[in-house]
């Protein structure tokens, strides 16, 4: 992984929640996370720390965020406004981490930076090691089915547009996403087959990986029928088994 593209984006990433895809992602995590009162939360590839901050709002006693980009972590610390329940660190989530263990690990946009099976497995192993036995994972990843389907949209959809850059061995794609916020920005990521997520998660020791489609969407600026036809992202959960 490299943080260079995000060092250039910096606090512009905070604008994500002003566009439809950002609102949908926040809705997804809030729907899945359940009761976290008194729990310790870890957000990997945290960017500017949105979900770590939300976890505190939702009742967590501690939330730690990790990102490879110094600029992103700097912005996250500014947003934290000195709240001692929030903590942010610079680290590569594709390399071994030593962060302790948490009740819940959030990975809204981590696994999409793995370009192959080896890199994906390394990320899953970090997730496993950072979870307490019985702990839960909540994640968001790109939807490869969208960019391979006949309904692949032209132009901005849900506040973002996608451009296929390269084909990967094994059936994946490298894709550039542009988020059409007030201060637009772009970044590249990898769309890998769902089966590869499942395989590497299991190899890392995770269990009960489930894909969790969004339901009951009610946003005034979101065409829910179009979203559900072929959503731009997928959500998933998994657990670390009790030893």
From TrEMBL:
Q: Does the keyword Calcium apply?
A: no
Q: One short Pfam family name for this protein?
A: Methyltransf_25
Q: Name one GO biological process term.
A: methylation
* Record flagged with keyword Methyltransferase: yes
Q: Which InterPro entries does the record cross-reference, listed alphabetically?
A: Methyltransf_25 (IPR041698), SAM-dependent_MTases_sf (IPR029063)
Q: Name one GO molecular function term.
A: methyltransferase activity
Q: Which UniProt key words apply to this protein?
A: Methyltransferase, Transferase
**Residue ranges annotated for the Methyltransferase domain, each copy included:** 41-135
Q: Which Gene3D superfamilies does the record associate with it? A: Vaccinia Virus protein VP39
Note the PANTHER family from the entry. TRANS-ACONITATE 2-METHYLTRANSFERASE (PTHR43861:SF1), TRANS-ACONITATE 2-METHYLTRANSFERASE-RELATED (PTHR43861)
Name it. Answer: Methyltransferase domain-containing protein
Origin organism of this chain? Answer: Aspergillus nanangensis
Q: What is the lineage of its organism?
A: Eukaryota, Fungi, Dikarya, Ascomycota, Pezizomycotina
């Amino acid at each position: 992984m490299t943080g260079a593209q995000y060092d250039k984006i910096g606090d512009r990433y905070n604008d994500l929640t002003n566009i439809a895809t950002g609102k949908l992602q926040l809705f997804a995590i809030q729907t899945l996370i359940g009761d976290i009162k008194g729990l310790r939360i870890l957000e990997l590839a945290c960017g500017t720390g949105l979900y770590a901050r939300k976890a505190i709002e939702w009742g967590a006693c501690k939330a730690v965020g990790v990102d490879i980009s110094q600029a992103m972590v700097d912005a996250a610390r500014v947003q934290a406004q000195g709240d001692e329940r929030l903590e942010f660190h610079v680290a590569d989530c594709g390399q071994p981490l030593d962060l302790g263990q948490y009740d819940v690990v959030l990975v809204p946009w981590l696994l999409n930076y793995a370009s192959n099976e080896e890199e994906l497995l390394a990320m899953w192993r970090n997730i496993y090691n950072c979870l307490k036995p019985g702990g839960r994972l909540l994640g968001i990843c790109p939807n490869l089915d969208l960019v391979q389907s006949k309904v692949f949209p032209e132009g901005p959809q849900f506040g973002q547009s996608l451009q296929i850059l390269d084909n990967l061995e094994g059936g994946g794609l490298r894709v550039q996403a542009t988020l059409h916020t007030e201060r637009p920005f772009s970044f590249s990521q990898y769309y890998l087959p769902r089966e590869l997520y499942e395989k590497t998660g299991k190899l890392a020791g995770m269990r009960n990986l489930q894909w969790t489609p969004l339901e009951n969407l009610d946003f005034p600026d979101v065409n829910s029928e179009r979203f559900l036809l072929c959503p731009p992202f997928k959500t998933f959960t998994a657990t670390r088994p009790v030893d």
